[in-house]
Design a protein that fits this description.
Blueprint: H1 2-34, H2 36-47, E1 48-53, E2 60-61, E3 67-79, H3 87-98, H4 102-111, E4 116-122, H5 124-133, E5 138-147, H6 155-158, E6 160-161, E7 167-168, H7 170-174, H8 176-180, E8 184-190, E9 196-202, E10 210-212, H9 216-233, E11 237-243, E12 250-256, H10 269-272, H11 275-278, H12 288-297, E13 306-308, E14 313-316, E15 319-322, E16 329-331, H13 332-337, H14 341-351, H15 353-362, H16 391-396, H17 405-416, E17 420-421, E18 427-430, E19 433-434, H18 435-438, E20 445-446, H19 450-466, E21 480-489, E22 496-509, E23 516-523, H20 531-549, E24 562-564, E25 567-569, H21 577-598, E26 609-611, H22 620-630, E27 633-638, E28 641-646, E29 652-654, E30 658-664
Parallel strand pairs: 2-10, 27-30
Antiparallel strand pairs: 1-8, 2-3, 3-4, 3-5, 6-7, 8-9, 10-18, 11-12, 11-23, 13-16, 14-15, 17-20, 18-19, 21-22, 22-23, 24-25, 26-29, 28-30
Helix pairs in contact: 3-4, 9-20, 12-14, 12-15, 12-19
Length: 679
């Protein structure tokens, strides 16, 4: 019986031991297999402390490699709650240096389980003062600080960053992911008592380098002259845009008021607003360029056609529209030069709403340009089926339609370059890749013919020589442009405000080989408010400085000297570019004759001889193509169509010879009067 009882007890113990072992193994299996990830993560959180090392943002340069935005390493102050034994004492010592309340610093230390940032990006003097205290548990970590060495220059294009180095506004925002780079990591290992025993780092990858199309010098000129215009006109705000008409690249984008991106938080949103991209406005009379482009392209008029401007009023679908001046009969050329509203409306009515709408759409009005800046406004162009019967009259003179500065300057550049519309761009390359490779953009397209563009250039030159753009006449360069004065809509009434205007002027120079297109927009100037009077002088000052900076040769004699054949006379101002172009043509012919007389006669084979073609009436492009086909070198003077040439048509010259061609108005011709007779 006792033996049986002993066996039972051993069996019981054995069963209990087996059950216990099974339970332990089951528990171990559960912990190792089921809960492994959870406990491993907890262990890592206790043992590993990971700090993110901010990467260096990529620098931003202007088109010539001059620094516009860079990153510099700065020390940030951290506190380790494990090593800091007296948080209150450390807080009292640091608070006056960090300009923070002691309670706030102490709370940060006490509530943290891992090292905590106490202050960001401190000056070297502040870092030295803290280091001199030799506080246990207080250490420094390098972080990058964004610096804009040119301060306000191109601030709206570049943008700025927040305290976490995240791009806000401008290129900094548009390409933040590329510019920001990839952050690095620093891992610190600690034991159960939270004592550090190991440390490892993964270096951050710096951000991509950005090269802009902006030229620092051109930008400085634009901002300087805009600031002067704001001071003289007392306008609320303004914009100046300078563009290369042959590529769409923007050389300058200036806005006023402006801000310093080094301390962007100190400025209101109004100062940080990039009006050149986000502010749409009714263009007023500058839009008459588009009206004329549509009419000329569709052959419904010509520059010499006469238009009855009805002494300054017209009735369109029951709506009476008044002109700014009671004009009588004007040619189409004069309608544009003197900015007649009635004349422009009559031309638009001949064109018709459907064709007019198609031309406006072709110039990309009401469409995004795709510029590499955030917040672009597409403007306003209602579908033609939503036009009222009187809409064509309003749109013809730049009402019921809104544009941004980057839209209207691209449209005018298309006229300057021969009819090709390029969308505005501010980025040349990012990290070795072009902006187009990183972000698709609308393709360039031919919106009007080269002949229409040449005619419009000549008409726009007349605006500056004879019309509302006289204050924009340049010294030493031909220029073409158009003024605009648009009433603003009163938000309270929804009607046009009687004394609030947007004054603008847009133009390009030189006329036949345009290098820059410049737009000036001033919102609500006080007193004088006409676009030609307010914006014209700004255009003149910017154009003369920029063309000189770009080493563009004069295409008309400067005001101080007028070269003629055999003499130089002094003149305060050329009466018109036609006289100047004649003088240049005569001087070029005389110079060639003198050179020929002085040089020995050189015979050439019949195979090398070509017959000079008759170039009369051809455009600049036509003359260039005709000469190129024959191997001749054209020397072009003036704008419009060819009216005079040397050598004369039919002359036999050697291939490679120079042919000098003067351009002017169709039918101008060359008088046959003897020397001394008037022109």
């Amino acid at each position: 019986m006792e033996q049986r009882s002993a066996r039972l007890r051993w069996l019981t113990v054995w069963v209990l031991a087996v059950v216990w072992m099974v339970a332990v193994l089951a528990r171990l299996g559960y912990l190792q297999l089921v809960c492994y990830s959870e406990y491993f993560a907890k262990a890592q959180r206790q043992q590993q402390h990971i700090f993110e090392i901010s990467p260096e943002r990529g620098p931003i340069y202007d088109r010539k490699g001059r620094e516009l935005a860079i990153s510099t390493p700065m020390d940030s102050c951290f506190g380790d709650p494990v090593e800091i034994k007296d948080a209150a004492m450390v807080a009292r010592l640091l608070a006056p240096i960090l300009n923070s309340p002691a309670e706030e610093v102490e709370t940060k230390i006490l509530e943290a389980r891992t090292p905590v940032r106490l202050a960001r990006k401190l000056s070297p003097d502040t870092v030295k003062r803290i280091q001199d205290m030799n506080l246990r548990g207080v250490f420094f970590q390098k972080e990058n600080r964004r610096v804009y060495p040119q301060h306000e220059l191109a601030a709206h294009v570049i943008g700025y960053v927040d305290v976490d180095e995240k791009g806000i506004g401008g290129i900094e925002q548009s390409f933040d992911k590329l510019i920001r780079g990839r952050p690095g990591r620093m891992m610190v290992m600690a034991d159960g008592r939270r004592r550090r025993y190991d440390r490892s780092e993964a270096a951050p990858d710096p951000g991509a380098k950005v090269v802009l199309t902006i030229d620092q010098t051109v930008q400085f000129i634009a901002e300087k002259e805009l600031a002067r215009a704001m001071q003289e006109s007392h306008a609320k705000s303004g914009s100046v845009v300078v563009q290369d008409p042959n590529s769409g690249k923007l050389l300058a984008v200036a806005n006023a008021p402006t801000f310093d991106p080094n301390d962007a938080g100190r400025f209101s949103e109004d100062f940080r607003m990039n009006r050149a991209v986000t502010a749409a406005y009714e263009p007023g009379s500058t839009f008459k360029i588009v009206t004329m482009a549509g009419a000329l392209e569709n052959n419904v008029t010509n520059p010499a056609e006469l238009v009855d401007c009805q002494e300054g009023s017209i009735l369109v679908a029951g709506r009476l529209i008044h002109d700014w001046h009671p004009f009588g009969i004007l040619s189409v050329r004069e309608v544009l030069a003197h900015s007649s509203d009635v004349g422009s409306i009559k031309i638009a009515l001949k064109l018709g709403a459907p064709r007019f709408y198609d031309v406006i759409r072709a110039f990309a009005v009401g469409q995004l340009t795709g510029i590499e800046l955030p917040g672009e406004n597409r403007g306003l162009l209602r579908p033609v089926e939503n036009w009222t019967p009187s809409s064509i009259g309003s749109i013809a003179i730049g009402q019921e339609v809104s544009v941004t500065p980057v839209q209207i300057i691209s449209a005018v550049s298309a006229i300057a370059n021969g009819g090709m519309l390029y969308r505005s761009s501010v980025v040349e390359e990012i990290g070795g890749k072009t902006a187009a490779e990183l972000r698709p953009r609308p393709a360039s397209q031919q919106v009007i013919s080269g002949r229409t563009a040449a005619t419009l250039r000549e008409m726009m030159e007349g605006v500056i020589l004879e019309g509302t753009g006289k204050p924009a006449q340049l010294n030493g360069y031909t220029a073409a442009g158009k003024s605009g004065t648009a009433q603003e809509i009163d938000p309270a009434t929804g009607r046009y405000a009687p004394n609030q205007y947007v004054a603008s002027f847009v133009g390009f120079a030189p006329v036949n080989e345009a290098v820059v297109t410049i737009l000036v927009v001033l919102d609500s100037p006080v007193g004088v408010h006409h676009g030609g009077d307010v914006g014209g002088p700004v255009f003149k000052r910017i154009a003369e400085q920029v063309l000189a900076y770009l080493n563009v040769p004069h295409d008309v004699p400067p005001a101080t000297e007028v070269e003629t054949a055999g003499k130089v006379s002094r003149s305060p101002r050329l009466a018109s570019s036609t006289d100047a172009n004649k003088a240049r043509f005569e001087a070029a012919v005389a110079k060639k004759q003198n050179s020929s007389a002085a040089a020995p006669t050189v015979a050439f084979d019949d195979q090398d001889a070509v017959v000079v073609p008759d170039l009369a009436g051809q455009t600049v492009r036509g003359v260039t193509e005709a000469c190129s086909e024959l191997g001749l070198m054209p020397a072009l003077i003036g704008s419009g169509v060819a009216v005079e040439q040397s050598p004369e048509a039919g002359a036999r010259v050697a291939r490679g010879s120079r042919v000098t061609v003067r351009f002017g108005r169709a039918g101008e011709g060359v008088p046959t009067a003897t020397p001394g007779d008037g022109n």
